Amino acid sequence: MKENAAVSAHRHALARMAAVVAFALSLYGWPCCQWTLAAQQGQATNAKSAPAPSQGQQGIMVVVNDEPITAYEIEQRARLLALTTNVGDQAKETFQQLVKSPSTEARMRQLQQEVITSNPGKSREQLIAIFQERQKELGKALQKQALDSARSALLPKLKKDAQEDLIEEHLKVQAAKKLGIEVSDDEVKALVTDLAGRNKMNYDQFAQHVKGMGVDISTMSERFRAQKAWRDLIARRYSAQISVTQRDVDRVLSEAALEGGEDTVELQVARITLLGGAKLDQAALTRRYAEAEALRSRFNGCKSMAELAKGATDTRFEDMKYVRPGRIAEPTRSMLLSAKDEDALPPVTTQAGVDVYAVCGRRPLGGNEERRNQAMAQLQSKELDIMARQHLRNLRQEANIEYK
């Protein structure tokens, strides 16, 4: 009787826990929004492998310059795109629905019964600990189910995107081959191995893991092959045409300083102050502002600033040399950083009167070589990207593409 009473007490305690399972599953270290490869441990070994292509899947859907693209290739590419598409919000919503569903409640009741019956003689604390561990396992399973469901819902749309991706990749690889650029299997495997290493796996483990999610590793490999071939082609054809100057780099650093609030450059600044006198009332300020606007309209580069100041009454010219933008109050700081070299800013009212600033140049702060190199690479990449998009448009216009 005592043992039955203890079991009954355990049963009631676990029943109370089951009533709050909807909260428990999201509190045991498995937040719904973290849908990463690490969160899917065990999926590769437990899930079904990527399906072998059926006769229907082998049907040709598109021909690109006499090279076919099959339904299976499109299906596989869509699955790959699904793996790299952010489905966190949809998966979270599906997860919450699963947690609250009658079937999950039934599974929880079954779990508590299994814990009680398979662990005779355990204390209440031990039973609760076992039950919580089983809860975590169920949470993982529901998370995976929600993630798979969210990705499956995307497949119809992703198939259209996949088809377009494959068409463009065929065009890229074909164009690269014409220039004698071919990416070897060893090079492709090295790229995949690097990705696997970043996910703490070797090549074979990663291939099996991806296969467990319904994607053959060859699908990812061919995408990497096309990407590298295209990068090599664009670099070979257009690198010599890239023209990025140090002034362009200075501009990028100025924009970074404007956004981040950190000084990365010094600005060469000149300033004319139209003095307001002892009594700067509204009428006097308005008059001085109009004079400053007229002065700015005659601005003809920084060399003209001193002469402009001489031609106006009660003015003061100052060559400020190189100054850090952070030492100048807003909004003037942001206006100076946004201005081009040899530009005069709109007049700014101060306690002393009205100021007209001009940006005469800029130079990087010392110890900023790494940032300059990064900015240079960023600008070069942008120019290459523009040329790459135009080249791809030309290839597509010239291609013979047949939809079956």
Write structural notes for this entry.
The chain has 15 helices and eight strands. By secondary structure, it is of the alpha+beta class. It has two domains: 237 residues, no CATH class; 119 residues, Chitinase A, domain 3 (Roll), CATH 3.10.50. Strands 3, 4, 5, 6 and 7 form a five-stranded antiparallel sheet that branches. Strands 2-1-8 form a three-stranded antiparallel sheet. Helix 6 packs across helix 7 and helix 11 runs antiparallel to helix 14. The longest helix is centred in the middle third of the chain and has 55 residues.
How is the secondary structure organized here?
Blueprint (H helix, E strand, L loop, with lengths): L1 H17 L2 H4 L18 H4 L13 E5 L2 E4 H13 L4 H13 L1 H16 L6 H55 L6 H14 L4 H10 L4 H22 L7 H15 L4 E11 L6 H16 L7 H6 L4 E9 L8 H7 L4 E2 L3 E2 L3 E12 L4 H30 L2 E3 L1
Antiparallel strand pairs: 1-2, 1-8, 3-4, 3-7, 5-7, 6-7
Helix pairs in contact: 1-6, 1-7, 4-7, 5-7, 6-7, 7-10, 8-9, 8-10, 11-14, 11-15
